[in-house]
Task: inverse folding
C-alpha cells in the first residue's frame, strides 16, 4: 500500500503562474516535510510542517492532521522552480515514507 | 545547515561483487538513514540507526547490511551485489530529540551493478 499519495504527478506552468501540490497520507501523522529535487540530485528540504500553515519565501505549506493531508503552494513560479517536489511523513517510529513526487515544469 | 556527505559519488561493480557506501554527518544528529531511489518507486527506506551500534530495519532491507560505527558514520554494505540493486542511494540524518524532525540529505551515490 502506498502510504503517501501525491498529486498531480506532473504539472506544467507558465512563468508567473501559481502551483498547488497535494499530499495525502494513509495514516495520521504530525511529521510532514516537503523536499525539492533536480533529476539525480540531492533532496533539498523546503519546509518542515507538522501542522498548520508555514511559509518560506514564495512557498506556503498547509498541513491538516485530522484530514491526513498537506499542500504546498508555490506563488509566482519561476523557470528555476522546475524539478520534482516530494513530500514525506513519519509514522511515529522515525520510519519515513515518501510520495513519488510531483514533476513541475515551468516554461517561459 | 546540517552537513551530510557520501562517498563514493559513483560506483560501478559486477554481479556478486562487494560494495560499501559511506555516509558521514557532522551535526551530531542521532538518527541516520539509508534510502534508495528508483523510477516508479520513489524513495524507499533500507536501514536506519539511532546511534552508534544500533541498526533498525526499513522497508526494503533484503540484500543490504548496514553498520553505524560512530555517531557520525553510517555504512551500507552490499556483499553480493545484484543488478536489481542498481539505484541512486541517499543517506540522511535527523535529530528528533529536538523540536524538529527535519531530515537532511547527502548528495547521493549512483551505483551500477553490471
Result:
Amino acid at each position: 500500500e502506498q502510504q503517501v499519495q501525491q498529486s498531480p504527478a506532473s504539472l506544467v506552468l507558465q512563468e508567473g503562474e501559481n502551483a498547488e501540490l497535494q499530499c495525502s497520507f494513509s495514516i495520521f501523522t504530525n511529521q510532514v516535510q516537503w523536499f525539492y529535487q533536480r533529476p539525480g540530485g540531492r533532496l533539498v528540504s523546503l519546509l518542515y510542517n507538522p501542522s498548520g500553515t508555514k511559509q518560506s519565501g514564495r512557498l506556503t505549506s498547509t498541513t491538516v492532521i485530522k484530514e491526513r493531508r498537506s499542500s504546498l503552494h508555490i506563488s509566482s513560479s519561476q523557470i528555476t522552480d522546475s524539478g520534482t517536489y516530494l513530500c514525506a511523513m513519519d509514522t511515529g517510529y522515525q520510519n519515513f515514507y515518501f510520495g513519488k513526487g510531483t514533476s513541475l515544469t515551468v516554461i517561459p | 545547515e546540517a552537513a551530510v556527505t557520501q562517498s563514493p559519488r559513483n560506483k560501478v561493480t559486477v554481479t556478486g561483487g562487494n560494495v560499501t557506501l559511506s555516509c558521514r554527518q557532522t551535526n551530531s544528529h542521532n538518527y541516520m538513514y539509508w534510502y534508495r531511489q528508483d523510477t516508479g518507486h520513489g524513495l524507499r527506506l533500507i536501514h536506519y540507526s539511532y546511534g552508534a551500534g544500533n541498526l533498525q530495519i526499513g522497508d526494503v532491507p533484503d540484500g543490504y547490511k548496514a553498520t553505524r560505527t560512530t555517531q557520525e558514520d553510517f555504512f551500507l554494505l552490499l556483499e553480493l551485489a545484484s543488478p536489481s540493486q542498481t539505484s541512486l542511494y541517499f543517506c540522511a540524518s535527523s535529530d528528533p530529540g529536538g523540536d524538529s524532525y527535519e531530515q537532511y540529505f547527502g548528495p547521493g551515490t549512483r551505483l551500477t551493478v553490471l
Observations:
- Residues 4-107 of chain A form a domain with the Immunoglobulin-like fold (CATH 2.60.40.10).
- Chain A touches chain B through 22 residues (CB under 8 Å).
- The first strand of chain A starts at residue 4 and ends at 7.
